[in-house]
Amino acid sequence: MTALEFSNHIQLAAGSLKPVAMNLTRNADDAKDLVQETLLKALSNREKFNAGTNLKAWLYTIMRNTFINNYNKITKRSSNIDSTEYLQYLNTDDSFVTVNKGTAAFVMSDIKAAIARLNEEHRTPFMMYYIGFKYLEIAEELNIPIGTVKNRIHIARKELKKMLQVYGD
């Protein structure tokens, strides 16, 4: 299928996307934006469409995934995640950790010291994961492959477990 034929098929199917977008977003402006973004993604990913398959279903899938991704971004932005430096992410209110606040203070200071001793390349992804970032978000933020993110978090956990062995079992 040529680019012109594909573009014509997309234009014909575009009309059926508007009611679905309206149903998803419940807002006329957001629905228009969603349809526009769906069509843009479809045109830019033309090579991923298999000729002879259902074009509308492919477009609906793109629209649904785009809507879900946008929704997740919005809810992620609106969540209350503190963006201060790493050690401030650890809970300093020791009251819920244990009844003995003296013991909790020692434990927290040991945890903070252990995290501070981690290599920067392991500490950064570990702390981002700790505060709620997903692996993919960490990979995008740090501009490294997702496998590297998983490996660095794994190594950080292993190192922390070794450093905090006194608190084990």
From TrEMBL:
Keyword Transcription: yes
Gene3D superfamilies attached to this UniProt entry: 1.10.1740.10, Winged helix-like DNA-binding domain superfamily/Winged helix DNA-binding domain (1.10.10.10)
One BP term from GO: DNA-templated transcription initiation
Domain of life: Bacteria
Residues covered by the RNA polymerase sigma-70 region domain: 17-73
Alphabetical UniProt keywords: Sigma factor, Transcription, Transcription regulation
GO molecular function, one term: sigma factor activity
CDD domains: Sigma70_r4
Coiled coil spans: none
InterPro entries in UniProt: RNA_pol_sigma-70-like, RNA_pol_sigma-70_dom, RNA_pol_sigma70_r2, RNA_pol_sigma70_r4_t2, RNA_pol_sigma_r2, RNA_pol_sigma_r3/r4-like, WH-like_DNA-bd_sf
Domain RNA polymerase sigma factor 70 region 4 type: 111-160
Family assignment from sequence similarity: Belongs to the sigma-70 factor family. ECF subfamily.
Descriptive protein name: RNA polymerase sigma-70 factor, ECF subfamily
